[in-house]
Design brief:
heterodimer, A: Rossmann fold, six-stranded mixed sheet, 8 helices, B: mainly alpha, ABC transporter involved in vitamin B12 uptake, BtuC, two-stranded antiparallel ribbon, two-stranded antiparallel sheet, 4 strands, Monosaccharide ABC transporter membrane protein, CUT2 family (chain B), transmembrane helix (chain B), transmembrane (chain B), transmembrane transporter activity (chain B)
């Protein structure tokens, strides 16, 4: 199977022959991948395989050394993360990037607060209501949109971070190890939320070290090893043994 | 759904209510023990408010700096440089140029602090520790330690002893600074970004907040507030001297911390800083009326500040 799977619906994100080098060190070599709306693709590989570099390239933190990125068919080149964000790409970082002493609703609108005319005063009521509606819809079980982040559990925080990405993303959400720090029940809850995002017609790229999770969640699996793209498999047509041998390079 | 009480508490900025209880307790203590020494007279109470006006305005600037996770130690020196700059310019030129010189000096020093902190990535503690000494030296050398009189009646009325509609101008300046400071801090996007940056700078950065620009802004706000405080001192004392603002560093930092602003950022209160500043002024006043010697005043004030800070830190950092 080739790295590019040909499909009828045009992809949301097309990465073609992405190459990234830091000085003389090659981090990503000739990487190509298409992501369609409503699809979850898992990115797997050992530590140092280049997964995080790839996330940073897609989210505009790093520019690729060569290769093209197309969003809805249009070639884009992001000079920073806020450009990628305004194009509808959101990242859920491993550390969640939440402000602990602030309420949930202020985190959801962090950097993009709603204000009222004419004095530009914060519209806390509107932000609270929108946040409450969204967390209810996604079934993120938090005490209220007004709860402080530091009073929430790890799973609830992850839920808030994903809700924030969902609120702003119009095309693509990148999830970096969303359940690495969570217990079993919380992981199941977060996976349920991630699944529900497919119905919102978003493309999702998820990094995970848990193959069980990858097989539960993803439609396709893309394997990286030392910056090289080893291959892309449809989750339904492969098994753990194949993926493990692709990750490790041992047959 | 939403907790009503906490919404009201946030609206009126009542986080860390210890400060308000402490304020009332100390007020009652002085009111009873100093009843015969004139503590409760209108004249004495209004004196307290007038004397704390410059410190309150410095404290408001510091709330922004601390909330953003930075610190400013140089504001006391800025006060002296600004007051002297205004007084020196007004010897030759009109009042307007004096005001511009005073505020401009404050903003300029704030800008120097800010550029080093925001763009050269130097720790604000060390930068402002250095500029504190540097500009204390500048203030001394500006006029060879001489005091410069401020003769413009308009200036001294506007910034010092005058009043509008029966309200002393120092009270109006304090009120204006508190109201504007509170609205910007609590109700504007800028204020929200300041608080978020102090809480988690990386989260602020990845959320599109221009963190370096914001750090520059808060240090310039602090510089500008110190500049205004310098004008108020010059107006009230009708003179500028290098010693102005020299003794305000500890008082203002204590006022801000006692007022519920976290020393390591992410949380603060402008109203709390006002109450903290009035508390410090009241302490000063009460200890003098009690007839304590200057050295005893310093010891007692130090102990009370220590206690107040310890209590309010317990209150603001409980996990």
């Amino acid at each position: 199977m080739s790295a590019n799977s040909e499909t009828i619906t045009s992809p949301v994100l097309e990465l073609k022959n992405i190459h990234k080098a830091f000085g003389g060190v090659v981090a990503i070599q000739d990487f190509s991948l298409d992501l369609k709306a409503g699809e979850i693709v898992a990115l797997v590989g050992d530590n140092g395989a280049g997964k995080s570099t790839l996330i940073k390239i897609i989210s505009g933190v790093h520019a690729p050394t060569s290769g093209t990125i197309r969003l809805d068919g249009e070639a884009v080149s992001f000079s920073d993360a806020s450009m990628a964000r305004s194009s509808g790409i959101e990242v859920v970082y491993q550390d969640l990037a939440l402000a602990d002493l602030q309420p949930v609703y202020m985190n959801l609108f962090l950097g993009r607060e709603k204000v009222r005319k004419p004095f530009g005063m914060l519209d806390r009521r509107a932000m609270m209501q929108e946040t409450q509606a969204l967390v209810d819809e996604l079934d993120v079980r938090i005490p209220s949109a007004n709860a402080m982040i530091r009073d929430l559990s790890g799973g609830q925080r992850q839920g808030v971070a994903i809700a924030r990405a969902t609120h702003w993303a119009t095309k693509l959400i990148l999830l970096d190890e969303p359940t690495a720090a969570l217990g079993v029940a919380e992981t199941a809850k977060v996976e349920e939320i991630v699944q529900s995002l497919k119905a919102r017609n978003l493309a999702i790229l998820i990094i995970s070290h848990s193959l069980d999770q990858v097989f539960r969640l993803s439609d396709r699996i893309c394997v990286l090893r030392r910056g090289n793209q080893i291959g892309v498999r449809e989750t339904a047509k492969t098994d753990k043994n194949e993926i493990v041998s692709m990750i490790t390079g041992l047959a | 759904m939403f907790k009503r009480t906490s919404a009201i508490a946030r609206k009126f900025d009542l986080q860390g209510s210890v400060i308000y209880l402490g304020f009332i307790a100390i007020f009652l203590f002085f009111a009873i023990t100093l009843a015969d020494d004139g503590f409760l007279t209108t004249r004495n109470l209004s004196n307290i408010v007038l004397q704390t006006a410059p410190a309150t305005i410095m404290a408001i600037g510091l709330v922004f700096v601390l909330s953003a996770g930075e610190i400013d130690l140089s504001f006391g020196s800025i006060v002296a440089v600004s007051a002297l700059a205004a007084a020196v310019v007004m010897q030759e030129h009109s009042m307007l140029f004096g005001i511009l010189a005073g505020l401009g000096a404050g903003l300029a020093i704030g800008w120097i602090n800010g550029v080093m902190v925001a763009y050269l990535r130097l720790p604000s503690f060390l930068v402002t520790l250095a500029t504190m000494g540097l500009f204390a030296g500048v203030a001394r050398s500006m006029t060879d330690l001489r005091s410069i009189p401020v003769l413009s009646d308009t200036f001294t009325g506007f910034f010092g002893s005058g009043s509008f509609f029966g309200i002393p101008s120092l009270v109006l300046w304090t009120l204006a600074a508190v109201i504007v400071g509170h609205l910007v801090y609590r109700e504007s996007r800028f204020g929200a970004h300041v608080i978020a940056t102090g809480d988690n700078a990386r989260a602020a950065q990845v959320s599109g907040i221009k963190v370096p620009r914001l750090r520059l802004a808060v240090l310039m706000i602090s510089g500008g507030c110190a500049g205004l405080a310098g004008l108020l001192y010059a107006g009230r004392l009708q003179a500028a001297k290098y010693t102005l603002g020299e003794s305000d560093l500890m008082t203002v930092i204590a006022a801000v911390i006692v007022g519920g602003t976290a020393l390591n950022g992410g949380k603060g209160s402008v109203i709390g800083a006002l109450v903290g500043s009035l508390l410090m002024g009241m302490l000063n006043n009460g200890l003098i009326l009690m007839g304590l010697s200057v050295s005893d005043q310093m010891i007692v004030r130090g102990l009370i500040i220590l206690l107040a800070v310890a209590i309010s830190l317990r209150d603001t950092t409980r996990a």
